Amino acid sequence: MTEQLTGVAPGRAALLAAHPDFGRADAIGRRARQVLGFTLAAALRRFGHGDDVAVGPEVAGDPAVWAALQSMFDGLHEPVTEPSSVLAAAIAPRAPRRDGLSPTGSEPARSCTARIGERRQQTVWLWQGVHGPLTAAVDAAFGRYARTAPASRETHSHALGAGNGDFKVSTLYAAGEIERKAVETATELLCAAVPEITRETFPFIDGITFFDGDLFASGTLLSQPGIIFIERRIIDDPDRLAEALLHEALHLKLNALTLTRPVHRAGVADDSALLLPVPWHRDAASGAPHRWLANRALAAAHVYVHLVALYERHAPSARSRATGPDVCRERAAYLLTELLADASRDLGPAGVRMARWLRDVLAAAPRDHEGGAAVPGPGPRREREPGPLSRPGSTAGLPAGTLRRSAPGHRAWRPEPDLCLVATFEPWDVHVLNAYQWAFFTACDGVDSGLAVSSLRAAAPGSAATAVTRALTDLLDTGLMVIEQPRTNWREETGCSPSPCWPTACSSRNGAADGADHSGDAEDLRNPAGP
């Protein structure tokens, strides 16, 4: 069925798994639960369901709660008009844990599970139909996507159709023993080939659903964290299913990461965003290459680099693989080159750092075809965030005036030096700030803007001083703070109303999977080399 390669470089998979910010599942999951727990507690307080509710980590990581909070989190969706309905799945988490799909007990007992990973207790549930709020939400989200997906939607296999409407309607079906065995066989293959990667990726999978139809070979939906959708026809091929599971699990991991770090800039999907041509995806009618936003290009590069590591350890037949090692390497290199050029303006600081890390991993530990020896690559390391990037609408200089906090009703929490959270109640939003933005927001209300910037720049190391100005610019863009400009005698005499604040646009929503709207992911002032 497959040919096992020997004498290949062991370094790439280890590098991908070991990065303290982008690789380690425990660190990413912990930060995501902190953000979601804070969001839930603040939301319950804001909308009258409790006051200072203590939210445990098992509740914040609950799939039903996570899915409910996704639609409330800044940058992921439009503002919620009736939050009570969104919070319905999250109000009862203080009940004892039950044997259901979630700790809330909102689902019936699991009737079909599959073991994944190297530890016997690591299992995922397999779709058995609608049993409660979580499964109903999964079914509804998949149905909406199946009805509205564009006809040009690319698939992951040449054997499957593209788009919807022109093909059989896609519907979920209940998994059985065949699906369970297929999942376990495919995940065992992955664990044998790249155990370092599976240990840091499988924890982000909660459930797997199967469907009939021609929508795609496999996929995930942002509104349903932890859920993978698999087309029936690939379950008979363990290599193909293994690749699909790894591919989608990496998307789930990246979605969790973007909750807590500024991977994309706010407005990454707006009209000013740069569209990258993708030569290997072309329109069937015109032959023109499809164009991707930076968030999609980064997600694809993330997958391609991991597939290179998989193919170095395990070589499926040409029939079973969607691409191949050389193709994955070429596509990853192309996307990362584009992302680190002009498209870098659509990435946040963490996104630029992530792209650089993936580029370094791709170049590391090359396979020596003659001797089979591995050339050691660079170990995981923390880097400073890049300096200010040229972005649409960025301001070169800040006007003189007094900094004012424009969120009188808010709740703030700083669980880690580089994870600073602010929830505003009017309007409802959740923001993740970096250490510099936190200092401006908590300590500079009523302070002259020039004095505040100069003071923080003096406290910051020289290489990070320029990040201070950018931090304030981004903070002003979110609307959390404004600069009050002094009245002029001319305006007072003429009766004209001055514009009291700068900038005039108070908020910009991020259309990508990045709840960390505008956070700069910069270092703690006391730890300039931090993440």
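The above is record 1. Record 2 follows with the same two-line structure.
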Amino acid sequence: MRLLVTRPKEDAASLVTLLKEKGHEAVLFPLLEIVAQPDGEKQLKDYKVSDIQALLVTSANGVRAFAQVDKRRSFHVLAVGAASAEAAREAGFKHVDSAEGDVISLEKLVREKCKPEKGKLLHIAGSSVAGDLKGLLEKDGFDFDRAVLYRADKVTGFSDPLKAEIKAGKIDGVLLYSPRTAASFAELIEQDGLKNDIKNMLAYGLSEAVASKIKHLAFKDIKIAATPDQEALLKIIREPEDEKMTEKKDDKKATDPKVIDVKAEEVKIKETAQKPETPKENTTKPDEKNKPGAASKDGKTPPKPEDPVEKALNAKKNEPVKKKGSFKTKAIAAGVLILAAGGAGAYFTQNMWVPKIKAQIAETLNIETASAQAQVSAEDIQALVGRIEALENKPAPSVQSVDVQPLLDRIVELENSLNSLKENVSTIQIGNGSEEKLAEFKELAARLEAVEGSEPQDLTPLQEETQRLNQLVQELNVRLSDVEVARIEARSSGENAQALIAGLSVLRQRLQTSTPYRAELQALSVLAQGDVVLEEAVQKLQDHAETGLASYSSLQASFEKTANEIVRASAVPESAGWVEQTVKNITSLVTIRNAPGNLNGEGPLGIVARAEHNVRAGDFTGAIGELRQLQGKPLEAATPWIDAVDARLKGDETLSLIQAHILSLLATAGGQG
């Protein structure tokens, strides 16, 4: 497939190589041109390595822009995806972590790797950014800053060669990596009137956001990567053999990618040089040589082959054939045999003649023979071998690696400070003063000489007065500081108290509905931080935050069922037999009610009657006081309702405590204000 690559040249090099390895032909036409921003370079000089918790990079262009203007590499880099992470490693950064390709995953990675209190986050970016990374991280409490090091300018139109290829249908697909690139591509297609020429073209988008910018164009199909990274994008690109299943891979000729420059007048194609075919020595089939009338290489018709029988009969009539070979050949063969025999003899008799030849050579060259040399004992040789083995087995001295990158970064910072100091010094201009200034200077010099020449005076009283005044000023400063702190605390306390009132109101409304109130309690807990009384009160409400507290109306409605269970439990003793249990089962099918107004009864029935009277009157405290007089099975039947009422009453008591404390804070703030 011939695929249009729209990435900037710096990013497209590796992509072109990958496409070529997969058998595709890449047509390179960058839609964005990367331009450096000098203001960002000046901004980087103000940051120290110790001040920056991590560098956030959302593109490989940002990494390259940083590497060109800043030599420091000891920063911790958090990259949005694999491509920008790889660019950071290639630039020399050692501590690099990668997210999953989008701003949301990068924000998650930052929360895992960083803490708000450990320093600033510096985002290395271009003039145009996608996603609200700043808002997400500041919401998490991080100190966020952004350095704009480059801008990506859009091209104003397709080149003429590229438009010709699109119109001719020679582009099979286009790769789009960012929403901005996709939007630029769509604009140029419409601008150059090519909307009807892309019907057979496929579009490959890195994400849904990219695809949304071109969905109005009539592509043959728009394919989206499963995950926003280059590896996933390349997986959805069809292999070349998918287009023509009958074509053999061995028949394909590899070609270099076609490169189309934005300002080029013609398309420059790098063609792979074809090797000349080696001519075949003989293209005539073996069986054609013997065919009658077959033409020879020189174009002449070969003579007709003779009949073997006739040839044999005629051979008898000819003279005897001479023997092959000659005397010269025989002599050479005999010489070779003699030399071979001599060499074999010398080899098998070397023990006899080699020592004599060695001795003769040594005597001629005045070299001592082995017999005259000092003999080395076997023990000495063994000791030497042992020493060599010990040296070989001795571990090499370990060299502790030293990370010099922080030192290099510090040197860079010092160089920047020195350059800044030089600039400041260069701005100081020293000029000659006027005559009036010179006269004034001489007058001051004369007065100084007069003072120095006069008799010394006793300055002790003046020094004491000065010391007293200084002490008084310090006391006044302390008092003013205390007043200012009190005003700030009062203002802060008043504002926080108002927020607490609002949070308490929301929580109280939720508690009236018998529903969970975890979110409302959490909001109030955040406002109560630092206030011991409120923190303890909020903690008391945590036990029922997930389930909620029963409202008084629901408690009143459920009491009737509880009362019936208490009466049934009291009707059957604990040691009851099967007859009593049968009676209990039968009574469970009907509602048992005590006579209205019978509040003086004894036993469980009287207790239930009085408790019911209290419930109807809204006196839940009196109701559970009556029910706690029960014993045994009746008390067990009443316990769940008693616990629910008790939790409700304690919750109300806690709310009242919170309200009273907040009101006291408001009163204090109002009095100080």
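The mean pLDDT is 76.
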